[in-house]
Amino acid sequence: MTTSLHITVLRGGPSAEREVSLRSGAAVAQALRSLGHQVDEVDPIPGDLQIPAGTQVVFLALHGTYGEDGTVQSELEELGLPYTGCGVSASLYAFDKILTKRRCLKAGVPSARFERFIDASAPWPNGWKPPVVLKPTRQGSSVGLQFVDRIEDFPSALAESLGHGGEVLMEERIVGRETTVGILDGSPLPVVEVRPKSGSYDYANKYIVGRTEYFCPANLEAAVTAQIQQAALAAFHAVGARDYARVDVMVQPDGSPVVLEVNTLPGMTETSLLPKAAAAAGIPFPQLCERMVQLALRRQPTRQ
């Protein structure tokens, strides 16, 4: 039987992913209440974080800047409150795609070739051929994502992507199957394959119900599945993650995995991928939320 806790769910926040965060937080709060917990919902203001008195644990349903980059984690540590998900440094590393790349390369995690840009007037780099992908270094949910198939399209795409934070990662575009791996308490969950019905897995295809098909467990050979999960777990450890995360992995035609990024506070909406993977592993959504809370609580001695 679940012991009733006073839990505060942080949702919303100031980032470009605010609307998704509000939905994640609402779903989490409903699930935790269904288990008998007392749940407060707070839309945090950076620099003036107000947590209701008596809160025993904070559930982070934030996405993007402030919530996922180590800032709110640092504020909660100053308050001495346990919170769900990764700590300050892992959040900072994983949220910055270039820092993630460097960590993964150092750890031998398979990753795509990349370049860094901070200047909208930068020329097309020597030794590269399209297609490539441009991503703001410190955004999530495909915010500012640009695909470049022709060199002449590069300047406008770079300017658009730089408009979402001032630093851009350019990667070779990996052709293959798009998958994601949830990690829960240090173990990989079943692999999810993502297939947009049209176009790429952009912001709209991620969050509009019916725009994308999901297959979980993904229809892959057992050896390929194991490779994908091993690469995801290696990336999880490379950034110093804990408790849970979601790792996006492309699978090339020969079955070899290429890690794209680590999401330390993955979405918890009705279309979100970590809950899909957990369900395939026999963990219903309320129990998944409960598990995340318990993982946070084990880091802090019980208060008398």
Description:
The chain is 32% helix and 21% strand. It is built from 9 helices and 13 strands. The chain has helices at 18-34, 71-79, 88-95, 97-107, 154-162, 203-207, 222-238, 273-280, 285-297; strands at residues 6-10, 38-42, 57-60, 114-117, 132-136, 146-148, 168-172, 177-184, 187-188, 192-196, 212-215, 244-251, 257-263. Strands 8, 9, 10, 11, 12 and 13 form a 6-stranded antiparallel sheet that branches. Helix 1 (18-34) crosses helix 9 (285-297). The longest helix has 17 residues, at 18-34. The mean pLDDT is 92.
Summarize the structure.
It is built from 9 helices and 13 strands.
What layout of secondary structure does this protein have?
Blueprint: E1 6-10, H1 18-34, E2 38-42, E3 57-60, H2 71-79, H3 88-95, H4 97-107, E4 114-117, E5 132-136, E6 146-148, H5 154-162, E7 168-172, E8 177-184, E9 187-188, E10 192-196, H6 203-207, E11 212-215, H7 222-238, E12 244-251, E13 257-263, H8 273-280, H9 285-297
Parallel strand pairs: 1-2, 1-3
Antiparallel strand pairs: 4-7, 5-6, 5-7, 8-9, 8-10, 8-12, 10-11, 12-13
Largest sheet: 6 strands, antiparallel
Please provide the count of β strands: 13
CATH-level-4 superfamily name of the largest domain: ATP-grasp fold, B domain
CATH class categorisation of the largest domain: Alpha Beta
Q: What is the alpha-carbon Rg in Å?
A: 19 Å
The domain count comes to: 3
- At CATH level 2, the architecture of the largest domain is 2-Layer Sandwich
Computed structural class: alpha+beta
